[in-house]
């Protein structure tokens, strides 16, 4: 978090000093700020782990957009063709997220990808009940959800 | 070139919205309808907002479009989750083609207790939490 704030401040300083108030210039400033933070990371305790987290964040956004488009096309195909190919069902998905914040993020991400909708968390916070639209390959669906959860948790820990 | 990209974004966005509407009419039960409306509509809004940001290309408009995208992506899944959950627990029927339901056996409609199915004797007991109402 400290790392992100410093990166933004360095970006704003770049914009002020270069006197070019555009979004593109702010992006350039943030990139230079990131490089500076990367160089001083070994010496500053509070920056630990920030430089490694940024590429993971970008990778996660890319992965998520890919999943989003793929799943949307699948749902679209099923809506437009007359016979139903879908096999909906409610599955119990064991969570490795622990705190309330992590569970909220994971449940939200699962709800956001088409084809899966998080219904409820069990009282002991161990299992997330998910309504899935395509259960013809349950193993694969579970693996996909696991990968998404794993990648999302990497960002917060 | 930029005209072409803008046009494509607008048309795909609008068709996803149309798809959401068709899905709402065609799909058989509440939960599958929630799938169609929230996600396809959210993706539609995102694409249309990207197109409008590209068209105006001013700081104010771009900032607002991105704010709209972020808020849609934060709120849409929460709304879907709450409506779906409420619908499920007040007993709206699932479609006849539903292949499995792992929630029903773990839910106790009298106490509203939801078990995880992973219980041992130890953690099956209900522990009072600080957030419980008195």
UniProtKB/TrEMBL annotation, chain A:
Keywords: Cell membrane, Membrane, Transmembrane, Transmembrane helix. It is found in: Cell membrane. GO terms for cellular component: plasma membrane. InterPro entries: Cation_antiport_E. Pfam families: MNHE (PF01899). The chain crosses the membrane at residues 12-40. It is a multi-pass membrane protein. It comes from the Bacteria. GO terms for molecular function: monoatomic cation transmembrane transporter activity. Coiled coil: none annotated. Belongs to the CPA3 antiporters (TC 2.A.63) subunit E family. This is Na+/H+ antiporter subunit E. The lineage of its organism: Bacteria, Pseudomonadati, Pseudomonadota, Gammaproteobacteria, Oceanospirillales.
From TrEMBL, chain B:
The keyword Cell membrane does not apply. GO terms for molecular function: sodium:proton antiporter activity. Residues 115-134 are annotated as: Disordered. The chain crosses the membrane at residues 6-28, 40-57, 63-83. Pfam families: PhaG_MnhG_YufB. Keywords: Membrane, Transmembrane, Transmembrane helix. The keyword Transit peptide does not apply. InterPro entries: PhaG_MnhG_YufB (IPR005133). NCBIfam families: CPA3_mnhG_phaG (TIGR01300), PRK12674.1-2 (NF009314). PANTHER family: ANTIPORTER SUBUNIT MNHG2-RELATED. This is Monovalent cation/H(+) antiporter subunit G. It comes from Vreelandella andesensis.
């Amino acid at each position: 978090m400290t790392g992100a704030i410093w990166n933004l401040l360095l970006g704003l300083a770049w914009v002020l000093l270069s006197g070019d108030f555009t979004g593109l210039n702010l992006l350039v400033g943030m990139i230079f700020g990131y490089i500076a933070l990367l160089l001083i990371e070994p010496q500053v305790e509070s920056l630990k782990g920030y430089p490694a987290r940024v590429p993971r964040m970008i990778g996660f956004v890319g992965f998520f957009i890919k999943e989003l488009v793929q799943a949307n096309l699948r749902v679209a195909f099923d809506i437009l063709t007359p016979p139903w190919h879908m096999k909906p069902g409610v599955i119990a998905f064991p969570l490795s997220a622990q705190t309330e914040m992590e569970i909220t993020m994971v449940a939200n991400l699962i709800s956001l990808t088409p084809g899966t909708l998080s219904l409820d968390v069990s009282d002991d916070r161990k299992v997330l009940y998910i309504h899935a639209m395509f259960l013809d390959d349950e193993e694969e669906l579970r693996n996909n959800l696991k990968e998404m959860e794993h990648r999302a948790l990497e960002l917060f820990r | 070139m930029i005209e072409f990209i803008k046009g494509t974004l607008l048309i795909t966005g609008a068709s996803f919205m149309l798809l959401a509407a068709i899905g709402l009419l065609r799909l058989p039960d509440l939960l599958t309808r929630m799938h169609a409306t929230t996600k396809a509509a959210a993706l539609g809004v995102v694409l249309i907002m990207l197109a409008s940001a590209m068209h105006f290309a001013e700081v104010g408009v771009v900032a607002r479009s991105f704010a709209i995208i972020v808020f849609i992506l934060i709120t849409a899944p929460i709304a879907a989750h709450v409506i779906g959950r409420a619908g499920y627990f007040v007993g709206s029927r699932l479609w006849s083609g539903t292949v499995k339901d792992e929630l029903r056996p773990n839910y106790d409609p009298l106490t509203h207790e939801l078990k995880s199915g992973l219980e041992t004797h130890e953690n099956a007991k209900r522990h009072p939490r600080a957030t419980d109402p008195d």
